[in-house]
Amino acid sequence: MWKITLLILFLYLQPCTAQVLGGKSVFSFLDLPVAPQLAALGNVNVSQQNNDIALSALNPALLRESMHQHLEMNYTNYFADVQYAHCLFGYHSNRLQTTFAAGIQYINYGTVTQTDASGNIQGAFKPRDMSVQLTMSRQYLERWHYGVTLQFIQSNYQQYHSTGLGVNVGLTYQDTTHKWQAGFVAKNMGVQLSTYVAGSQEPLPFDLQVGISKKLEHIPLQLSATLHHVYQFDVRYADPGFEEGTIITNGDTTKAGNKTADKIFRHFVLAAQWEIGRYVELTAGYNHLRRQELATPQQKGLSGFSAGVGIITRKLQLRYTRSWYQRSAALNQLGVNVPLREWGVF
To answer: What one-character-per-residue DSSP string does 240-300 give?
Structure first.
């Protein structure tokens, strides 16, 4: 364990000037929602109480012994015909008193036409991103769980290649008597091992997140609230071409004023999950930062909202989610979780 601790400290002490938002980090695909339930929760949640092994992608401490021999496969139809998939398998070792999970995330951007500076076609190439993850989680005393995820990251864009090493560290505290749970995670601590361009090293999309989930006493409803980027107060995208006071269409200007409440609320992601009977669960989430950054001012619609449905049985978990990024732009995700032990595979 001390070797893992030293590795985490080494990665964390890499130049931290990179801990910023707005396209200023490498391997940004690491923040994509890899599974339907994660997307339905707003893609930021570190405390959800559920038997879905995909939750360990948000917080490694959410990997539990009950997820032994769970195999999850997820598919996402992303924007601009981009497609990506994620696969995860869990295993609990009684001898080590540790639960493990191994997974892979693969992003396929399709075939891109290659041209020169004059626009002459020179061929085609297939860019891709990939991340291989290994997660370890253990219980401490009665109510604590802690976990670590190690990631090897690889990116290939024609002649440009890059690799990296990342670490996620998570912690949860659970009060089963009052049915609430708190979680904390430090995500994407790491370093770029090889760069796209020599001498141009970039940071990973680091984040600190903290949250709480509560199951209501007499209603089968679980509520969650999560804070992301807790180390940075103002997480608004700084567009140099659209500052307050800038003249826009028909002579109007952008409004200036007190933005403190908006700055605070952009850190929040809210979610709710309702269990209907024994086999159906409905999940909804709201990501205020996504709504404010991506929605058009006059046509926000459902931007920032997400909703999912799950069919949960002893031998199968099937989930579907739709997330709205803009009024006319939403993504669909489908995932299946198979507890192989229930099928007598092992």
So the answer is: TTS-TT-B-GGG-BPPPS--HHHHHHTTEEEEEEEEETTTEEEEEEEEHHHHHHHSBTTB-
In a domain? residue 297: yes
The answer to whether residue 10 sits within a structural domain is: no
Judge whether 11 lies within some domain.
no
Kindly report the CATH number assigned to the domain that includes residue 90: 2.40.160.40
Contact between 325 and 290 (Cβ < 8 Å): yes
pLDDT of the chain along its 346 residues, tens only? 434 443 444 444 444 333 345 557 899 999 999 999 999 999 999 999 899 999 999 999 999 999 999 999 999 988 888 999 999 999 999 999 999 999 999 999 988 888 888 888 988 889 999 999 999 999 999 999 999 999 999 999 988 999 999 999 999 999 989 999 999 999 999 999 999 988 888 999 999 999 999 999 889 999 999 999 999 988 887 655 555 544 444 444 445 445 888 899 999 999 999 999 889 999 999 999 999 888 877 788 899 999 999 999 999 999 999 999 987 788 899 999 999 988 877 6
Instruction: Report if residue 147 sits inside a domain.
Output: yes
Number of domains composing the chain:
1
What is the rounded distance in angstroms from the CA atom of residue 227 to the CA atom of residue 214? Answer: 15
Domain range holding 69? 44-112+121-233+243-343
Residue 14 C-beta-side C-alpha neighbours within 13 Å: 24
